[in-house]
Amino acid sequence: HLQRHAIAAEVERDSRGHLRVRYTLPASLPKISIVIPTRDMLHFLQPCVDSILQKTTWSNYEILILDNQSSCAETLAYLQSVSADARVRGLRYDQPFNFSAINNFAVEQAAGELVCLLNNDTQVISPDWLEEMASRLLQPGVGAVGARLYFADGRVQHAGDVLGPGGCANHLHGIIAADDPGYMNRAVLPQELSAVTAACLLTHRALYQQLGGLDEHNLTVAFNDVDLCLRVRQLDYLVVYDPYVELYHYESKSRGAEDSKEKVRRFQTEIEFMRCRWEKLL
Fold first, then answer.
1. Of 14, 115, 168, 189, which has the highest C-beta tally within 10 A?
2. At 92, which helix (H) or strand (E)?
3. Residue 171: C-alpha distances to residues 33, 57, 275 (Å)
4. Mean pLDDT, rounded, of the chain
């Protein structure tokens, strides 16, 4: 199949015995800008950044840390010290928390051809995570690539998103064990899906900007990644879940749970907006 379509790739067996396609990367690697919004939470931010700097084997990347009104002295000192690394840039975003707006601001400052949206409560597991994501994103017609994410205890936190459950969208497979392949092996095989989480999402900067980025007016916190993926698909690009890209994700540790009246009201408003915008799909 690959030969017939002149696709530069190799096929091998993965650790589970499934066929795995490894796409050949271009000779000149594009620059990847890794965008990490944060507010304090140094105990999550530092392991996240350190895991990237210490494990990542992709050579051409930059880390943009978006400081959204941090006040902890230790966090501010860390941001200053880590910015001494040529691969890291600290940017100040001195506005009320708006996840979509923070990422959009960062992408405007990014130097990379590709942009990786990454939560500050993640940690890299697989050193070739950017090679794997980029090799799929650079295939014709692919618009976004997402990762397989784990809770701290090793259970699967994200293996792609599905529309409908929870009133809008939710992660596939529920919370399954790390060695559980999911229904028909779908938790452990690359596939096209409706959406993937922006906790770790790679896309083309030009495509992100063409779409106007995340919806910072109607989806300030939740479902902005699902909405972005659906708009990517509207332009006939694929959204791909790639289980060979593995990270830990401790989930919403900076923002906290939806446990106040204001947060619940905002969450319900965002669900209703998604129901209206994507009524036919939902």
1. 115
2. strand 88-92
3. 25, 28, 17
4. 95
